[in-house]
Write a structure and sequence with these properties.
Number of strands: 14
CATH superfamily of the largest domain: Vaccinia Virus protein VP39
Helix content: 10-25%
CATH class of the largest domain: Alpha Beta
Number of domains: 2
Strand order of the largest sheet: 1-4-3-2-5-6-8-7
CATH architecture of the largest domain: 3-Layer(aba) Sandwich
Structural class: alpha/beta
Distance between the termini: 48 Å
CATH topology of the largest domain: Rossmann fold
Bound molecules: S-adenosylmethionine
Length: 300
């Protein structure tokens, strides 16, 4: 399969060097992004998804149908936008039938919470739109209220009359006779400053070298640690092979989750702690802190 349309957020050069780019967040089966990409062959469309199965399906389809102007990224759009785009680079954002998280306690996970809309509004150009479709009235109300707080949008919404459904969800809701809504947020100026969770990328990760001491990372197995505010690590299995160790690790850094292996390699009378060369990680300050933490904890 041709992977040239896949963007690996961990290794790609940032910000992306693509002009005239439009984005769909949560493309699901990909019906919408494929349709608009075919209608506008000169523009580039980037799809963000958190579901691996959707990424695989879209890659297959783009290959099969030889579509050249779609790229996709497997990452939460909230972090993906921060990592990949410079301010005002994006020309249009589409969000079709996002998860509405109807329970009150979960509304802070919605993709249109103020924090996300702040990031998206920084990345779209003035005069451009965030275009949202939803079947959920509570989500509509919430989105309007969050968008208003940023004081940067001309806000419009209307009931949507669909003749031809574009996605599976749209078709399903239409058949059920559900009301659908279309929200258009036009950026007219820069948003009011809003604190957002960020991840700090670093150029390099530095291995930690310990001399004249034999580490014992076993105590870390199946443990969870708060390294500092916003940085948590969980260690699963620890393997020992010929004096070298591998530690299965999950790190959450301000909500950005990465799964990888930490390797502890014996070299003469020293041990080197590092991210395994076979792990695909976004190099961040938090990952470095976790490697340092493992080294410290392994010699207790
Ligand atoms: C209800 S489905 C709708 C799919 C498609 N847009 C449609 O209309 O058929 C919502 C999709 O958004 C994706 N998603 C949810 N949160 C996301 C996020 N923060 N970033 C990227 N994708 C997300 C989910 O994996 C899921 O595929």
């Amino acid at each position: 399969m041709d992977y040239s349309c896949y963007i690996n957020v961990k290794t790609v050069e940032k910000p992306l060097n693509i002009e005239d780019v439009e984005v769909e967040i949560g493309f699901g089966r990909g019906d919408f992004i494929v349709k608009v990409a075919k209608e506008h062959p000169k523009k580039t469309f980037i799809g963000f998804e958190i579901a691996e199965v959707s990424i695989k399906k879209l890659l297959k389809r783009v290959n099969r149908e030889r579509i050249k102007n779609i790229k996709c990224v497997w990452v939460d759009a909230f972090f993906g936008f921060q990592l990949l785009f410079k301010d005002r680079q994006v020309k249009q954002i589409y969000i079709n039938y996002p998860d509405p998280f109807p329970k009150k306690r979960d509304t802070s996970r919605r993709i249109t919470r103020r924090e996300s809309l702040y990031v998206f509004s920084k990345k779209i150009d003035t005069g451009c739109y965030i275009d949202i479709r939803t079947d959920h009235f509570g989500f509509l109300e919430y989105t309007l209220e969050q968008a208003k707080q940023l004081e940067c949008f001309d806000i419009n919404y209307r009931e949507l009359r669909v003749n031809e459904p574009i996605t599976k969800y749209e078709e399903k809701w239409m058949k059920m006779g559900k009301k659908l809504y279309h929200i258009k947020l036009k950026k007219i100026k820069e948003p009011v400053f809003t604190e957002v969770r960020r991840i700090k990328e670093v150029k390099m990760l530095f291995p930690v070298k310990l001399e004249n001491i034999v580490p014992n990372p076993r105590a870390l197995e199946e443990t969870e640690h708060k390294i500092r505010d916003g940085l948590n690590a969980r260690f699963y299995k620890v393997w020992n092979k010929n004096g070298n160790f591998l530690i299965e690790t999950i790190v959450s850094e301000n909500g950005f989750v990465q799964k990888f292996m930490i390797i502890i390699k014996r070299k003469e009378n020293s041990y080197i702690f590092d991210v395994s060369p076979f792990s695909d990680v976004l190099k961040t300050k938090g990952i470095q802190e976790v490697v340092n933490f493992v080294a410290k904890e392994s010699i207790k």
